[in-house]
Specification:
The protein is mainly α. Among the domains are: about 190 residues, P-loop containing nucleotide triphosphate hydrolases (Rossmann fold), CATH 3.40.50; about 70 residues, no CATH class; about 80 residues, Winged helix-like DNA-binding domain superfamily/Winged helix DNA-binding domain (Arc Repressor Mutant, subunit A), CATH 1.10.10; about 100 residues; about 60 residues, no CATH class; about 110 residues, no CATH class; about 70 residues, Arc Repressor Mutant, subunit A. It contains 48 helices and ten strands. β6 and β7 form a beta hairpin. The longest helix is centred in the middle third of the chain and has 21 residues.
């Protein structure tokens, strides 16, 4: 007979639905499926059937399972799954992962950076890396990521699965996970994913009577009709329809001679057992006893090591020679209690987790403690230093041995390691287990020092995990342990302040800083004072105070001085970076110097993250001051190579705005679209606000109000109105769009709003027009004179190249009005130099000052108007081009007739709003060229062609590109 069914029984509907999930994934429509149910219900078996279907369909299959050895091991299921593909992956595909290969070094040791750096450590970035790898390997045939025993997984793995579930749409990847219903964390994740329609659950019910009969017939390799009714009835009754119980009970009946095969049929012997069925523990125990004392002892020791175990450890505990050990193992394999662990030499696994619990329960308290102690000592001998999961296993064994103090210390070490490795969720779980091991309040006197150490580590992990409420509770408990120790109280308040800062809760953080300062007199160390000033500086940026940036500077300078004296390089970097950020408005040279101090300290002490921050700060300064995006682009490339993806997204957003300001609009659109997808994929709210702002500015600088309003709606919908970027939307976006529509009054209203907001708070963004364009508009309107000019020019933000151009124009207008032709010419010369990277802003500035120059008799207004008219004509910004021509005519200048191509457009299409460029695309459509071919003919990007085609469909009312092909001849001939 077979103790495991040869074929799958009782799940045809689930298997059909899961096959459909695989088919959708092969077609690029991935999703997540959860197989849920009680232990032994058949989740793993159904998962194997699903993977068989995937193999038949030639899909790529990656499989991992949760750890059942002690507390959850970070990323165990993902590591196991990815290791299988990593061994055979084409090096060319690995290179296509780019910076994400380094991130995956956390899961695949072969890809680990030699310096032990993983780039960005967030779960979101790691989830994106896993998604990119699975999509890459499955791009031709589809990929299945199968995660068995997900209920045994660590919180970080669950976080990655959550990210994958939310981002599989449009990917050739299916995630299929098996989850026990009694597991709160994993089952809650499955419920949440399904609630938001990112996945589907397949709850597995118990088998009915006919299905139990079919299962038994499969095990006995006979027809269902040949199974005696008493046999199937008893098995159905005693198992309650649980497939594992059916198989285990059936095996026990045959092994004890209760069920025999004679004369080509199965029959019961003697009287059937009464109404109370034997427990699974008894069934497994009986099978173990039949192996003899040696085999039974081996299984009990192995059960203490977990569902899968290293045979060397069992041998170390039992003291067996190789021959006896292998004989006992083979007997257990033949009894289908053990199996080689997927071909890994020297490792075995129990065939079901319930067998582990059953065999472990056979050990009496004394024997359990003694064996667990021997196993712990064996692990310490075989694996010196207890790397990785061995530390957690040893902690569990020490706990089983009754050595609570030793177990708690080992759990404490596991928690600290998890915190350092960037897995705070796992750290919290294992540290809370250590807290439980130490016992209740009656044990505090005995373990006071250890408990204090443990809770301090837990507080750190909770802060890193952003769990502020729980951190506050732990801090209160620590206060009770050492109520008079003000030095420790200061540490706790600082930790809680950082936790609040990470969570973006300024009020909570400020309260913790205040509480820490109340403890300071005579208690604080120099290191604590430095850390306190640093966190207070960062919290100041979040605060609603009008002088928040000034307060930030004072605190950061104090933090830098103290940290340098105390030898705290991390705090030194924190302080100098935020000083560089805050100094931009006041003094760009000082800002550069601060970022360089941060860079030097980070390089000296190997602080890679802060080195990256410093490089981005310096690159941003070069862009703002010189209009040179080169250093920032180089920093961006280095961030990508180093796997610092979150910071790279910040840099990419700024670079997208640079494309807008330099009037490289088509590339700006492509880069901002990519940046928006990246920031949303990584859930970077601040970066998303910046990119959405840049998209508003992009439409505004092209004079496309409808597109600007659409982008503005999206900005508002995503909470942008409450962000610092809101001022840029008005001063750099809406005001410019109004000027391109020759609506000076509306532009002035937008700039007035910016000025009013600037009075209420210090903004970290300096291109909103307050230091440049707004000044020019006020000068042209007669609202500002030399005093205001000198006031603005004295602010370092006015020296940023974009702003400097408009300030120079304002200076030229004022000089011209007072008859200072030489001063006006000098100012225009400087404006000309500063405006050269910014084609649109340059010509807009010329149009704005030319009218004043013509009326007041200074400069070269005719030349400026012709340059502006030429640019805006080519850019299809009709209002400005027309205004330039009108002023030229008023000045008596001949103005040539502009034929932009609109004369070739049939009147019917002109009434629909078809532009000259759209008509050019339409003219080429009879050839049914692809977007790429059309782009090559017109010397524009395929993305731009796609936009023109979409616009043509909207304006003509046609449903799709095919209809446009069919109707193009009629459209071209319309009158």
């Amino acid at each position: 007979m077979r103790t495991r069914a040869a074929t799958h029984v009782g799940r045809p509907a689930e298997l059909a639905a899961l096959s459909a999930v695989l088919g959708e994934a092969r077609r690029g429509r991935g999703t997540t499926a959860f197989l849920t149910g009680e232990p032994g219900i058949g989740k793993s078996r159904l998962l194997r059937e699903v993977l068989g279907c995937a193999v038949d369909a030639e899909m790529v299959v990656l499989r991992g399972r949760g750890s059942v050895t002690g507390p959850p091991v970070p990323f165990r299921p993902l590591t196991e799954a990815l290791m299988s593909v990593a061994r055979t992956l084409d090096p060319e595909l690995i290179r296509q992962l780019g910076p994400y290969q380094r991130v995956l070094g956390r899961l695949v040791p072969d890809w680990e950076d030699p310096g032990g750096q993983y780039g960005d450590a967030s779960m979101v970035v790691l989830g994106e890396a896993v998604l990119r790898l699975t999509a890459l390997v499955g791009r031709e045939r589809g990929c299945v990521l199968a995660l068995d025993d997900l209920h045994e997984a660590d919180p970080e793995t669950l976080a990655v699965v959550d990210y994958l579930a939310g981002n599989l749409s449009g990917q050739p990847v299916a995630v299929v996970a098996a989850v026990r219903t009694e597991s709160p964390e994993a089952h809650l994740l499955a419920d949440e994913v399904c609630r938001r329609n990112d996945g589907v659950a397949f709850p597995l019910a118990r088998l009915g009577r006919p299905e139990v009969r079919e299962l038994v017939s499969t095990c006995l390799e006979t027809e269902p009709a040949l199974i005696p009714d008493p046999v199937s009835d008893r098995l159905f009754h005693d198992s309650a329809g649980n497939p594992l119980m059916v198989e285990e009970l059936l095996h026990s009946m045959i092994a004890t001679g209760e069920l025999v095969h004679a004369q080509k049929a199965w029959r019961l012997t003697g009287t059937t057992v009464g109404s109370v069925p034997p427990t699974l523990v008894r069934l497994i125990s009986a099978r173990a006893d039949r192996l003899g004392a040696g085999g039974s002892r081996l299984l009990s020791v192995a059960a203490l090591l977990g569902r899968r175990f290293q045979l060397t450890l069992v041998q170390q505990v039992l003291g067996l020679d190789d021959q006896h050990l292998l004989n006992d193992v083979q007997s257990a394999v033949d009894a289908q209690l053990l199996a080689p662990d997927e071909g890994i030499p020297g490792w075995y696994a129990f065939q079901h987790p319930l067998a582990v619990d059953a065999l472990r329960s056979r050990l009496g308290p004394g024997e359990l403690a003694r064996t667990a102690r021997q196993a712990a000592e064996a692990v310490e001998v075989v694996h010196p230093g207890l790397p990785g999961e061995w530390c957690q296993l040893t902690a569990q064994l020490r706990e089983r041995a009754g050595e609570r103090t030793a177990a708690a210390r080992m759990y404490l070490e596991c928690g600290r390691r998890a915190t350092v490795a960037g897995a705070p969720g796992s750290a919290v779980a294992v540290l809370e287990r250590a807290r439980e091991v130490l016992g209740g309040p009656q044990d505090l006197a005995q373990h006071h020092s250890l408990l204090t150490e443990l809770l301090e580590a837990l507080l750190e992990a909770l802060a890193d995990d952003g769990r502020l409420d729980r951190a506050l509770a732990v801090a209160e408990e620590l206060t009770g342990l050492a109520p008079g120790d003000r030095t420790r109280q200061i540490d706790r308040h600082i930790r809680l302040a950082w936790a609040a800062q990470v969570a973006g809760q300024w009020a909570q953080g400020d309260a913790q800083v205040t509480a820490a300062r109340e403890c300071l007199p005579g208690a604080a160390t120099e290191a604590q004072l430095a850390s306190l000033d640093a966190v207070a500086a960062y919290l100041s940026v979040l605060s609603p105070a009008v002088d928040r940036m000034d307060r930030c500077v004072g605190l950061a300078r104090s933090a830098a001085r103290r940290a340098e004296r105390a030898g705290l390089p991390l705090v030194v970097c924190q302080a100098w970076y935020i000083l560089g950020f805050a100094a931009r408005e006041r003094d760009m040279a000082e800002s550069d110097a601060c970022f360089r101090r941060c860079l030097d300290c980070a390089v000296e002490h190997g602080l890679t993250a802060w080195r990256n921050y410093a490089l981005v700060g310096l690159g941003g300064n070069a862009w703002l001051t010189l209009g040179d995006a080169g250093p920032l682009r180089r920093a961006h490339q280095e961030l990508l190579r180093g796997g610092a993806l979150t910071l790279a997204q910040n840099a990419a957003a700024v670079l997208g705005l640079d494309r807008v300001l330099t009037a490289d609009f088509e590339r700006a659109e492509e880069e901002l679209d990519a940046s928006l997808a990246g920031s949303r994929g990584l859930r970077l709210v601040g970066v998303t606000h910046y990119v959405l702002m840049a998209r508003v500015v992009l439409a505004a600088h092209r004079g496309r109000r409808d597109q600007m309003l659409e982008a503005l709606t999206e900005f508002t919908r995503n909470g942008g109105d409450e962000s610092g970027e809101a001022l840029l939307v008005h001063g750099l976006g809406r005001a410019v769009c109004a000027l391109l529509e020759e609506d000076r009054a509306t532009a002035e209203l937008d700039m007035a709003r910016v000025a009013a907001e600037q009075e209420l708070s210090q903004s970290p963004f300096h291109l909103d027009g307050h230091h440049g364009l707004g000044l020019l508009l006020d000068v042209l309107a007669g609202r500002a004179g030399d005093a205001r000019l000198h006031e603005v020019a004295a602010i370092d933000a006015a020296g940023m190249r974009w702003n400097r151009h408009f300030v120079a124009l304002a200076e030229a207008v004022l000089a011209g009005r007072r008859g200072d032709s030489a001063g006006a010419s000098e100012a225009m010369r400087r404006a000309d130099l500063d405006s050269r990277p910014f084609a649109m802003a340059r010509c807009l500035g010329l149009r704005l000052v030319a009218e004043s120059a013509a009326d007041e008799g200074w400069g070269r207004p005719r030349e400026w108007l012709r340059e502006a008219e030429e640019y805006f004509h080519r850019a299809e910004v009709g209002p400005v081009a027309g205004a330039c021509r009108t002023i030229l005519r008023r000045l008596g200048e001949p103005v040539r007739q502009r034929r932009s191509g609109t004369d070739r457009i049939p009147e019917a299409l002109r009434r629909l709003g078809v532009t000259a460029r759209e008509f050019e695309v339409l003219e080429m459509m009879p050839g049914k060229l692809s977007n790429k071919a059309l782009a090559a003919r017109l010397h524009i990007s395929p993305r731009t062609v796609e936009k023109h085609v979409a616009s043509l469909l909207q304006k003509t009312g046609l449903p799709d590109r095919g209809a446009l092909f069919d109707q193009v001849a009629d459209l071209l001939l319309r009158e």
